[in-house]
C-alpha cells in the first residue's frame, strides 16, 4: 500500500477515534473496549507504515521537520497505549488522535527535507532516538497537564460534571503527569548527554539556540520535580511548569527547523 493511502487511512481512523472519545466525554456513552482498541491499533499500524515511508523515501533517510513530527506523534500514541494498560487513560486520545492526524496531513502535503550526513558521527542515531522519545513523552505530559487543568476547573466551579465522570480521579491524573515528566526528564538528560558526548557541533552557531533552549527546558522540568518532592507542588503550579518546559522544548526543535526548512528553504 502506498504512503499517501496509508497516511489517509490513518488520518481517517484517528479522526473516527477522536470523535468516539469526544462523544464519550460529552454524552457519557462509552463504546465497547474492543472497538476502541481496534481503531487505535489499526491507526497505529497505518501511521507506522506511512511514517516509515516518509522517513525513508527512496531508501534515503529524511529527517525533515514534518517527518519527525509525524514519527513523534506515532510514538506519543504508542506511549499512551502502553500507559493505558495500567490506568484508564483513553480520554487523552481525544487530544492525541487529532494531533497525530494533523502531523500526518502536514507531512503528506508540505515539503520539508533534511538529509543528514552520509557519515554521521558515532552515536548520532542513539542521540536522535533518545531525543524523539524525550519529546514524545514530554508532549504526553503537556497534554496530560491540559486535561488536569480542565478537571481542576470543573471541580472548582462545580460545573461540567460529565468531565469529572469521564476522566480518571484527580490523584491518578497527577500521578501520571509526574510519571511522564520524570521519564521525559530522564530521556532528555540522556539526549543532552549523548549530544555533548558524540556531537562536536552541539554549540555551533547554527544550532546553539537549539541547545540552549533544550537545556532551559531541562532546568524547568528538573525544578518541577524538585518542587514536587520538596515542596509538594501540584495542581496549577505543576501545570504551569509543565507547559513552560514543553513550550521551550517546542521552540528548541520545531521553531528553528520550521524557519530553516520551510520559511528559508535551507
Would you summarize the structure shown here?
The protein is built from nine helices and no strands. The chain has 266 residues and is mainly α.
Layout: helices, strands, pairs:
Layout lengths: L2 H25 L5 H23 L9 H19 L9 H17 L14 H34 L3 H6 L3 H29 L9 H24 L3 H29 L3
Please describe what this structure looks like.
With 266 residues, the chain is mainly α. The chain folds into two domains: 1-116; 119-266, no CATH class. It is built from nine helices and no strands. The longest helix has 34 residues, at 124-157. Mean pLDDT is 80; it is low at 261-266.
Rounded radius of gyration (Å): 19 Å
Low-confidence stretches: 261-266
Q: How many domains is the backbone divided into? A: 2
Number of helices: 9
Share of helical residues:
over 70%
Average per-residue pLDDT, rounded, comes to 80
What structural category arises from helix and sheet content? mainly alpha
- Our measurement of the CA-to-CA distance between the termini, rounded to an integer number of angstroms, reads 32 Å
Total strand segments: 0
Portion of residues in beta strands equals: under 5%
What are the secondary-structure elements, in order, as H or E? HHHHHHHHH
Largest sheet composition:
none
